[in-house]
Amino acid sequence: MIDKINAEYDISVIPFEKLTLTSTRDFDLIQSSIRQRLEWTETFELTSRKKSFRKYEGWIKNGEFKFRRILKSGRNSFIPIVSGRIYQDNERVKIDTKIEFQRFTSIFLIVFISFALIMFILNTSSIRSNNSGFSLLLVIVPYIVSVVFFNIESRNLKNDLREIILFIDENSE
Questions:
Q1: Of the chain's two ends, which shows fewer C-beta atoms within 10 Å, N or C?
Q2: 93, 26 Cβ separation under 8 angstroms
Q3: Do the beta carbons of residue 93 and residue 74 sit within 8 Å?
Q4: Do residues 70 and 57 lie in contact, with contact meaning Cβ atoms separated by under 8 Å?
Q5: Who contacts 52 (Cβ-Cβ below 8 Å, separation ≥6)?
Q6: Low-confidence residues of the chain: pLDDT under 70
Q7: Which domains occur in the chain, in start order?
Q8: For 132-144, what is each residue's pLDDT tens digit?
């Protein structure tokens, strides 16, 4: 059974999460279950739109994995990438995961919000600071939008990971 999923419905204020799953199932069974759900690819393009019956694209090798959700239509830069490893810990198997934005998205958000923050500081420090409200919106809105989309996608990923492990646990007993 799954012992815990850390803070399943908590809202992350930073678009980054670490998650640890624990199962009594076999290491190879968990690894093959994840592998069966992946459209194999070792590199991720900026867009993840593909015609595939699978829900995720990525890879898994020797207990280490990296994947993200496949979009069936449209574009979404806020789809996080899940990376991690599966390992035996005493009589249990642990799955340590990291959920984070793609590197390009993270860099873009940091640069954009930093630039907007500098503009806000310059506007508020100047004598004619009548645009400081707009500058503040340029700081707050991208941050809130990115955090909201990250949390939505992260919740979906956590539910899918739990489903993979529960499916294994229910069908292996």
A1: C
A2: yes
A3: no
A4: yes
A5: 39, 70
A6: 1-11, 45-50, 74-75, 126-132, 166-173
A7: 16-101+158-172 (3.30.310)
A8: 677 788 888 888 8
Q: What residue type is 104 in one-letter code? A: F
The pTM of the full predicted model, rounded to 2 decimals, is: 0.76
Euclidean distance between CA atoms 157 and 163, whole angstroms: 10
Q: What pLDDT shows up at residue 166?
A: 66
Instruction: List strands edge to edge, sheet with 64-69.
Output: 16-23, 92-100, 81-89, 64-69, 56-61, 38-40
Q: Which residues contact 162 (CB under 8 A, 6 or more apart)?
A: 2, 5, 21
Looking at beta carbons, which pairs linking 9-14 to residues 24 or more positions away fall under 8 Å? Answer: 9/155, 11/147, 11/151, 12/147, 12/150, 12/151, 12/154, 13/147, 14/147
Report the pLDDT value the prediction gives residue 158, as an integer from 0 to 100.
85
